[in-house]
Amino acid sequence: MTYNLWYWDGIPGRGEFVRLALEAAGIPYKECAREPGATAQAVADDMQCDRKHPPFAPPYMEAGQLTLGQTANVLLYLGEKHGLAPASVSGRYWVNQLQLTIADMVAEAHDTHHPIAASDYYEDQREEAARRAENFRTERIPKFLSYFERVLYSAQGDWLAEGGRWSYADLSLFHLVDGLLYAFPKRMMSVSAQYPKVMALHGRVANLPELRDYFASGRRLPFGDGIFRHYPELDGK
Fold first, then answer.
1. What is the pLDDT of residue 196?
2. For the whole model, what pTM was predicted?
3. Dist. CA 164–CA 17, nearest whole Å
4. Can you tell me the distance from the alpha carbon of 198 to that of 177, in angstroms, rounded to the nearest whole number?
5. 141-181 pLDDT, tens digit each
6. SS3 of residue 184 by DSSP
7. H helices within 48-125, ranges in order?
8. Which residues contact 209 (CB under 8 A, 6 or more apart)?
9. Domain extent listing, the chain
10. Alpha carbon separation from 61 to 58, 85, 187 (Å, rounded)
11. Least C-beta-crowded within 10 Å: which of 71, 129, 137, 158?
């Protein structure tokens, strides 16, 4: 089966968490908004289609007659269907729990530059963004990364979950760290040594043979005006 993935074109966004899983596992998929002839309205138009279970927002994925919305939900499906999570029920829910925790930090990273309203420009909430970003840098980055460091320490292996192999949560943690390195390079430079296992995992995923072609291709979109944005005035040690 070839899956249809729907996400806005031009930014990695939350769609990248799903892309990484599909690409690393070699699962056939079509990026619908990037197909030849697709317009900027492609995702918005498709979301208006009559579906029994309509998605709230992209990313969402069509798997035959099934439409799956929400990043963690899509990955839960792929994890069970394609072995991207442990085989045990407890292991699958553990990886889903990790993914939801990653999603929490992703939302907080987004709110550093849009703390008041996503519909307003950053320039209209610059003062509030500075306060939110300072809190994110000094309190939230250490809180989340310390948690993942502890998980990796307890796992006593290279990956977050049992089985001796990467799961979709490892790929997602890689993308989260990658986004933080892009958006907050000064802060990450000053604290990354405190999280050696997290940073080592980031390096392992970056060098996965399964992702080599994807990372070298034009399919991988660069950071820009998405969730992770680099505003020098929001960064700091």
1. 98
2. 0.96
3. 21
4. 8
5. 999 999 999 999 999 889 999 888 999 999 999 999 999 99
6. coil
7. 71-82, 89-111
8. none
9. 3-82, 89-234
10. 9, 18, 35
11. 158
3-82 is classed CATH 3.40.30.10: yes
Q: Can you give the three-state secondary structure of 111-178, one letter per residue? A: HCCCCCCCCCCHHHHHHHHHHHHHHHHHHHHHHHHHHHHHHHHHHCCCCCCCCCCCCHHHHHHHHHHH
Name which of 80, 75, 68 is nearest 4 in CA terms: 68
Q: Which two tokens stand for residue 101?
A: 């925790």
In the DSSP assignment, the letter for residue 90 is: H
Q: Which amino acid is at 95?
A: V
Fold (topology level) of 89-234: Glutathione S-transferase Yfyf (Class Pi); Chain A, domain 2 (1.20.1050)
What are the two backbone dihedrals, phi and then psi, of residue 217, each rounded to the nearest 5 degrees? -100, 170
What 3-state class would DSSP assign to 34?
A: helix
The pLDDT of residue 73 is above 90: yes
Tell me the C-alpha distance between 196 and 158, whole Å. Answer: 12
Domains 3-82 and 89-234 share a fold: no
**Distance in angstroms (rounded) separating the CA atoms of residues 68 and 55:** 7
Check: CB of residue 119 under 8 Å from CB of residue 166: no
Q: In what helix (H) or strand (E) does residue 3 lie, and over which residues does it extend?
A: strand 3-6
Average pLDDT, the chain: 96
